[in-house]
Backbone:
């Protein structure tokens, strides 16, 4: 059911034991398994709001503010891959009334992948948006070069959606998140995922080249790769195309 919002998305807060998780999106989740849950990259949710708004036109959606750089209440966990995956898995097990389409962007795609492995019964489909990092980018030198090659293709409008979160995070926390993602090998994890997997990449993205997306999709039991226009931040510059893939995953029967 479409759930439009006004000038700003609805803000939700879900208690998970000693911590709480803040999310942005529609106030209600679907008990028929039609909700979309999004995990941002490097803890900066703002650039995904365009995609969230598009998804909300056809059904319930939540953008998780993790680890909580934008949350006035503070961080819900350490800004590293494993603690983030654990929090997302706990949220999936407690909050949505039915399995969701779980999506993550960039380092958030790695977090979503590990969360899906923890609670497979709560994930209907997994969508990896520009997942990081190919093997050759697991060192800082090549990563900096790939970032520079990608940045020239990004929309300047994405910067204001990222910068406030990055400033609140600070360089130490951002580096911690990047380093933890560089030690991960998603290609080794994907064969263990039972649900359908979609891997999306932008045609000008050196951080997640199309060949890397195709490789990851091939590693999944039920995987397919989707190429869209744009660079690494294509969910911001091309929200309609991104939301269309998420909506298709939401509407596709499980296991198809």
Residues:
């Amino acid at each position: 059911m479409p759930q439009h919002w006004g000038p700003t998305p609805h803000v939700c807060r879900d208690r998970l034991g000693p911590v709480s998780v803040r999310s942005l999106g529609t106030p209600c989740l679907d008990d028929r398994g039609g909700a979309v849950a999004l995990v941002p990259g490097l803890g900066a949710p703002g650039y995904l709001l365009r995609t969230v708004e598009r998804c909300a036109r056809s059904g319930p959606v939540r953008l998780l503010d993790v680890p909580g750089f934008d949350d006035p209440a503070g961080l819900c966990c350490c800004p590293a891959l494993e603690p983030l995956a654990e929090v997302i898995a706990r949220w999936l097990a407690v909050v949505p009334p039915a399995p969701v389409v779980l999506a993550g962007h960039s380092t958030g795609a790695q977090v979503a992948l590990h969360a899906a492995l923890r609670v497979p019964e709560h994930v209907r489909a997994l969508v990896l948006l520009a997942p990081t990092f190919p093997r050759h980018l697991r060192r800082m030198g090549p990563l900096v070069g790939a970032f520079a090659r990608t940045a020239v293709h990004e929309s300047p409008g994405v910067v204001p959606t990222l910068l406030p979160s990055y400033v609140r995070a600070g360089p130490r926390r951002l580096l911690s998140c990047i380093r933890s993602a560089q030690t991960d090998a998603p290609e080794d994890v994907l064969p263990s995922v039972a649900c359908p997997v979609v891997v999306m990449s932008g045609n000008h993205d050196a951080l997640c080249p199309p060949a890397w997306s195709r490789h990851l999709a091939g590693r999944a039991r039920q995987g397919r790769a989707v190429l869209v226009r744009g660079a690494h931040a294509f969910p911001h510059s091309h929200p309609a195309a991104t939301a269309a893939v998420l909506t298709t995953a939401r509407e596709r029967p499980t296991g198809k």
Observations:
- The mean pLDDT is 94.
